[in-house]
């Protein structure tokens, strides 16, 4: 009996250690950091992120880099963001080589005990943000490289890995903008058309499609677009006109929370599901002269995240069931060693208590990407963006025949 008690005590102590480690997880430790970030206090957010990084055992290294890159991006520190997100991209690739011992440990304890590798869509978002960083620096060629990376990665996921994903409309639309700026009219039309297919509610953002359909001699497509968008003005740009495309990174990305899933008549297993944290209002974008226009949501990350998580739900459930089997075996072994059914039962309860879903995610991402287009005479203009909790302006130099991209971050 004393031996059984010692086994039981050791198991309870081990469980407390494991559970205490979970209690201090990344989401909880970065709560204050997110408050600073979402209030626009980027210096404090970066300072707090430094403190979090010093406590990191290595399991949250990718999240530290992702959050740092996003904070720098939102602060307009484009070059620094480029460097940090490039590190995150390399680390994500390295972590894709799954550690067998790490996976075995997760079966015995829980998913939070392993290094965070990122959801598929989060890895794609690295390249989307890099494309926008390069665009802000006027490096269109480098920006297009990142857009192509997004589309190639998605093609591989869809075609080779048979995942039920779609192309990211925001990547396609930004590709169209960049190609148009470089006067590669055919490529611009193709990317705009792909964006429209993925996001049918583009509305007035479809304007360049009509212009470019005419310009590239796609008469049949032009006629169909005229029927679909009657009354949408699309006259060619004047010799002294340029364009501004404003990308509003709006709201707060969805957050994971635990949910019960029944895998048989008696077994309930907890898995992560996404909960929306905000439903951003439509931003209003304008210049010093003329009324503002409403931005259009091109991509909702809440929708994208849900699709990607649902795709791996079956694999998560299978892993959880396997974990239950491993823990039952360990519990039976402990009971046999102690010659006590009570010790076996206690062992199983203790091990099962550590069975918590991984709720980590890249929470500094926006909820959605909204876009507005402005056609303006060449020269300096002050572009204003207004939304609940967001009021900002940017001075922009518009050049004849060029398309300038402006990125703005809002949180409500």
Brief overview, please?
The chain is of the alpha+beta class. The protein contains 16 helices and ten strands. The protein has one domain: Serine Threonine Protein Phosphatase 5, Tetratricopeptide repeat (Alpha Horseshoe), CATH 1.25.40.10.
Helix content: 40-55%
The N- and C-terminal alpha carbons lie at a distance of 60 Å
Q: What sequence of helices (H) and strands (E) makes up the elements? A: HHHHHHHHHHHHHEEEEEEHHHEEEE
Mean pLDDT: 84
CATH A-level architecture:
Alpha Horseshoe
Low-confidence stretches: 15-24, 104-108, 347-351
Radius of gyration: 25 Å
Report the sheet-strand fraction. 15-25%
Envelope shape: globular
Remind me, CATH topology? Serine Threonine Protein Phosphatase 5, Tetratricopeptide repeat
Helix and strand content put the structural class at: alpha+beta
Number of helices: 16
Main β-sheet, spatial strand arrangement = 6-7-1-10
Largest sheet: 4 strands, mixed
Total tally of structural domains: 1
CATH class: Mainly Alpha
**CATH H-level superfamily title:** Tetratricopeptide repeat domain
Number of strands: 10
């Amino acid at each position: 009996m004393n031996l059984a008690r010692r086994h039981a005590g050791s198991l309870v102590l081990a469980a407390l250690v494991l559970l205490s480690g979970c209690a201090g997880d990344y989401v909880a430790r970065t709560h204050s950091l997110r408050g600073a970030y979402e209030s626009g206090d980027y210096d404090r957010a970066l300072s707090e992120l430094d403190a979090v990084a010093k406590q990191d055992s290595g399991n949250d290294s990718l999240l530290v880099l992702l959050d740092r890159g996003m904070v720098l991006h939102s602060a307009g520190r484009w070059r620094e963001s480029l460097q940090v997100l490039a590190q995150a991209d390399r680390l994500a690739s390295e972590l894709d080589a799954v550690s067998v011992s790490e996976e075995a440990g997760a079966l015995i304890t829980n998913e939070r005990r392993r290094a965070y590798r990122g959801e598929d869509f989060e890895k794609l978002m690295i390249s989307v943000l890099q494309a926008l960083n390069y665009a802000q620096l006027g490096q269109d060629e480098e920006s297009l490289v990142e857009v192509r990376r997004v589309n190639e990665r998605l093609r591989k996921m869809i075609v080779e890995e048979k995942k039920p994903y779609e192309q990211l409309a925001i990547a396609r639309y930004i590709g169209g903008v960049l190609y148009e700026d470089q006067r590669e009219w055919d490529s611009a039309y193709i990317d705009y058309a792909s964006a429209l297919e993925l996001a049918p509610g583009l509305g007035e953002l479809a304007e360049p499609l009509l212009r470019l359909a005419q310009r590239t001699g796609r008469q049949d497509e032009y006629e169909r677009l005229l029927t679909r968008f009657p009354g949408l003005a699309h006259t060619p740009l004047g010799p002294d006109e340029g364009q501004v495309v404003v990308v509003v990174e709006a709201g707060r990305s969805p957050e994971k929370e635990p949910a019960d899933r029944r895998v048989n008549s008696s077994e309930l297993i907890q898995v992560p599901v996404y909960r929306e944290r905000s439903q951003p209002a439509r931003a209003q974008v304008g210049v010093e002269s003329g009324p503002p226009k409403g931005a259009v949501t091109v991509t909702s990350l809440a929708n994208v995240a849900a699709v990607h998580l649902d795709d791996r739900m079956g694999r998560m459930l299978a892993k959880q069931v396997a974990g239950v089997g491993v823990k039952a075996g360990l519990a039976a072994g402990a009971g046999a060693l102690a010659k006590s059914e009570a010790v076996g039962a206690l062992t199983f309860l203790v091990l099962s208590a550590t069975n918590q879903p991984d709720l980590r995610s890249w929470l500094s991402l926006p909820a959605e990407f909204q876009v507005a287009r402005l056609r303006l005479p060449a020269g300096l203009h002050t572009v204003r963006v207004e939304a609940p909790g967001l009021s900002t302006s940017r001075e922009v130099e518009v050049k004849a025949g060029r398309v300038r991209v402006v990125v703005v971050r809002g949180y409500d």
